[in-house]
Each structure stands twice: as C-alpha cells, then as structure tokens.
From TrEMBL:
InterPro entries: dTDP_Gluc_deHydtase, NAD(P)-bd_dom, NAD(P)-bd_dom_sf. Coiled coil: none annotated. Belongs to the NAD(P)-dependent epimerase/dehydratase family. dTDP-glucose dehydratase subfamily. Pfam families: GDP_Man_Dehyd. Its cofactor is NAD(+). NCBIfam families: dTDP_gluc_dehyt. This is dTDP-glucose 4,6-dehydratase. It catalyses: dTDP-alpha-D-glucose = dTDP-4-dehydro-6-deoxy-alpha-D-glucose + H2O. Its EC number is 4.2.1.46. Keywords: Lyase, NAD. Residues 6-327 form the NAD(P)-binding domain.
C-alpha cells in the first residue's frame, strides 16, 4: 500500500517532533513536509532525518492553492496531518491578520485541495477515499477559559477569546463541515499547552530558561496565577499518531496531560532545577522572576478531560510535568551553552 502522506508545518515545534517520531515508528510511510519556514520554523529541528530516504522537505505556503494542487498531483497523498499555523497568542494580539489568513484560509485551501484530489477528481479514489484521512491539529484554547473547577470535554461549547484561538476555532469548524457536508474522512485533535525540545524561544518555558541562564529578568504575566494543562510534546505525538490511524471519522479528541500548573509554579520549578543543573555563582534564579503587565484577554485556566482518547484509543501520557521539564531543561541547556 502506498503510504505517502503530507505533513504541514513540520519545521515548527510540534510538527518536527512528530515527524521524527513518526518516521522512526513507521518505516513503511513516506512523509512530505510542507513548511513556509516563517520565523517560527527551522530545518535545524529536523537534522536527525534530513537524509532519511522516506522523507522529503518542500518549502511552500498553504495559502497558495495552485501550489498545493500541484503538490497533490505530484505525490498523490493518501493522508494529511496539518500542523501549519501562526501559533503565538501575543503575536495574534499585535497582528491578527496573519492568523486569519494562515489558520483559516490556509486550512480551507488545504482541505479543499484534498477534497478535490480525493473525492471530486474523476477518479480512482472516490470509492476508496475513506483510506485518505485529513487530520487537523488544534488547541484547547478554542473552548475559552475555565473558572477554578471543571474540565474541557469534546462537548464544551467553543468560546475563543483571542484572535489566535478564534482563528483555530474557525478552522476547526471548516474541518467539521467537510465531514458533515462531503463525508470527508477528517479527525481533529485539540490539545493543551505543549512543552519540550525544539519549541520556539518566544514561548513561556523557553523564555524562562533563556532569560534565567542569560541573567535577565524572567517576565511573568499578571500575578502568575494563570493555569495551563501542560503536555510533553512526545506524549502529544503518540496521541496524534493514534488519532490519525484509529480515530473515528468526523470526531474530535482532546489531548491533555492532566498536569495543571500555574505560571508562577512553572517559573519557580524551572529556577529550582536550574539552581542544581546549572548553578549560578551566587543566589537563586528565582531572584530574577519579575511580574509584568498582564496580556489582554488572558484566559485564567485551561484543563483537559482526556477520557475519550484514553478510553477509546488507549492513549496515555508518559510524562508528568516534573519529569518532562527535566528533559526539556537538559535540551535547552545543551543548546544555549554550546
Ligand atoms: P510553531 O509556530 O512552532 O510551528 C508552526 C509551523 O508552521 C512553522 O514551522 C511555520 O514555518 C509553519 N507555517 C506557518 N505558516 C505557514 C504557511 N502559510 N504555510 C506553510 N507553513 C506555515 O507551532 P507549534 O507550536 O508547533 O504548533 C503546531 C500546531 O499545533 C498549530 O496548529 C497550533 O495551533 C497547534 N497547537 C500548539 C500548541 C502548543 O502548545 N504549541 C497547543 C495546542 C495546539
């Protein structure tokens, strides 16, 4: 069976971790990685597989339909796993347009190209298109914010609060409609905050580590009490692989690590670990923690109920925050100090 699949956004944080994991586990697949290499993507994230014969990198834009159509004709993909997105909430506040363009229109372009290739073409695949899966990677931020209790389930109504989450919510809806309208074999996963190796330096955990090691102030929004449900990126990758292969068409699956921690705890924990893993000559890294003006519309708490993917697909997270963060710090220290 031809198992050529398209992965978009594979030079970014989660996509790169996923491709390396997926190729190691699935030597019978051929993966084409389509990425625009925006500021957020780098081929340095993929050095482990650059000579893998089952892997090909293509630079291109998911907003360019003609280019996508040509790519589908050339490779005749039998599946898509779609990571490419503008992903940083702060950037969506200062410049929302790119988020609508890439996350909404880009996702639509990709879906429509896949639909035409798999379903509309006067072709061979129509009868067998169920084998052709479109897997959309999304976020728990589409559900808005939680109070002090409760968890996001797949039934939680969408209530996005930032331009980023609104753009992801919109793309989720377009993906959903392609199942209900066209019967396309789609699946969506909504995951909580990821952390681990290869994350862009703009995000919270890499920022804390980098600022600590360089002796700068470690900025924490507001009072640091905002809670996220942290998911180690390789646990996310195993969840995606399961949902891609075994998830039911038209369904959504929440992926979360059951690791709710507030931002101040995260900063303190990282400083505490750095104090032993990379000691300062004097004092603790905790002395560098500084509170800064809160992000507008900052959601208080996200927490995921992962029952569905655990019970239906047998997924479970291997890492809790305290084990995953040690691996993460080790990776960044090696990068920052070499
Ligand atoms: P990232 O910003 O690290 O990577 C995004 C990648 O997409 C980059 O390599 C970038 O070059 C590429 N890209 C951007 N615009 C493109 C375009 N027009 N055409 C082709 N490629 C383009 O993001 P990430 O953290 O790896 O997130 C991946 C996906 O997971 C996103 O869809 C994001 O919404 C979702 N997600 C991320 C998290 C998280 O904690 N990081 C949590 C939930 C969901």
């Amino acid at each position: 069976m031809n198992k050529t699949i398209l992965i978009t956004g594979g030079a970014g944080f989660i996509g790169a971790n996923f491709i390396v994991h997926f190729l190691a586990e699935n030597p019978d697949y051929f993966v084409v990685n389509l990425d625009l290499l925006t500021y957020a993507g780098t081929l340095d994230n993929l050095t482990e597989i650059e000579n893998n014969p089952n892997y090909k990198f293509v630079k291109g834009d998911i907003c360019d339909r003609a280019f996508l159509q040509e790519l589908f004709r050339e490779y005749d993909f039998k599946g898509v796993i779609h990571f490419a997105a503008e992903s940083h909430v702060d950037n969506s506040i200062s410049g929302p347009e790119a988020f609508i363009k890439t996350n909404v229109l880009g996702t639509f372009n990709l879906l429509e190209t896949a639909r035409q290739h798999w379903m509309d073409a006067p072709n061979k695949y129509r009868a067998g298109y169920e084998g052709c899966r479109f897997h959309h990677i999304s976020t728990d931020e589409v559900y808005g914010t939680l109070g002090e209790t409760g968890l996001f389930t797949e039934q939680t109504p969408y209530a996005p609060n930032s331009p980023y989450s609104a753009s992801k919510a919109s793309s989720d809806m377009v993906v959903r409609s392609y199942f209900h309208t066209y019967g396309m074999n789609v699946v969506t996963t909504n995951c909580s905050n990821n952390y681990g190796p290869k994350q862009h330096q703009e995000k919270l955990i890499p920022t804390i580590i980098r600022k600590a090691v360089s002796g700068e102030n470690i900025p924490i929004y507001g009072d640091g009490k905002n809670i996220r449900d942290w998911l180690y990126v390789l646990d996310h990758c195993t969840g995606i692989e399961l949902a891609y292969k075994k998830g039911r068409a038209g369904e959504t699956y929440n992926i979360g690590g059951r690791n709710e921690r507030n931002n101040l705890y995260i900063a303190n924990k990282i400083c505490e670990l750095l104090d032993t893993m990379y000691p300062k000559t004097e004092g603790s890294y905790k002395d560098q923690i500084t509170f800064v003006t809160d992000r507008p519309g900052h959601d208080l708490r996200y927490a995921i109920d992962a029952d569905k993917i655990e019970n239906e697909l047998g997924w479970e997270a291997n890492e809790n925050f305290e084990t995953g963060i040690v691996k993460t710090i080790e990776w960044y220290l090696q990068k920052l100090t070499k």
